[in-house]
Amino acid sequence: MYPTRSSLKFSTLTLIITFTFISIASATDIGTIKLKNGEVYKDVPYQLNDYYKIVVFTFGDQKIRTEYSELESITIHNSQDTVYQALQKPEIKRDFDFEEEIIQIVPWSGIISLGGNFSLPTGAYYSGLTAGVGFNGDARFSINDHIALQFSIASSRLGFNNDVNIYVNNPGWYVFHKDISFHANRYAMALNFYKSISDNNRSIWYNIIGAGVAGNTFSVEATFRNADTGLLEKYKDSKSEYKYLVMVGVGSVRMVSKHIGMDFSGTADLVVASTGNGGIPVSPIIALKISGVFMF
Prior knowledge:
This protein has two domains: 5-103, no CATH class; 106-295, Porin, CATH 2.40.160.20. It is built from two helices and 13 strands; from the N terminus they run αβββββαββββββββ. It is mainly beta. The termini are far apart. It has an eight-stranded antiparallel barrel with strand order 6-7-8-9-10-11-12-13. Strands 4-3-2-1-5 form a five-stranded antiparallel β-sheet. Strand 11 and strand 12 form a beta hairpin. The longest helix is centred in the first third of the chain and has 23 residues, at 83-105. The model is unreliable at 1-10, 12-26 and 86-106 (pLDDT under 50).
């Protein structure tokens, strides 16, 4: 049987397509190939395979296959064009965009703050006491882009409206030295609802709401002296009382570098303490805090 005209046309078209594909696949350029290990092959014929990310080139009677990752550069013969770098630019850009996206999603993991505070006691429970200073520390851990968990501790030595005296009942003895103090210590766990205020997402505004315990300690240390013999006797006593508290406040972390910054905040520690006289059993401690920050 002889082939028909239509089958001859189909066979001819198939041969043309096959020949064209083979010609394209085997297209060879001349250039200088430099590898990352320092080897250089000058003016060698090479073929690029973008699918498998390899280059095949002939050096002498050797046929060498090399992955793109092993190449330093490929420079076209009699040209300054660098084929390899042009091929890699899209991958470099994708990596860069991916890293930028990660930075935007996770601006920080935690914040450690240490500093001082100025505290003003108010309400019936703290009647007779005046403002004082102290120290505070905070640890925050980011939960997501807008919420963080905060652990807070603060201690303030408060003053007295009037001088507190110690009376001695034993004749011939008098107060040689005294130290009477009242410390308001607060321990709380809170949520921070924060918002980034800088392009790199590391400086933030935040609101605070949480709960904890207030430990109030009244301490007396005194030294008594006998006027006749000069004998000294020391006395020391303290009493602590713990109350529940609710903490609310606002603040801002301002970063001066990637890891170092300052924390400025104001809180109201609402101490729940009934005095037995009726009325609202809440006595707030208003605190202004300034702290140094380490962010990670």
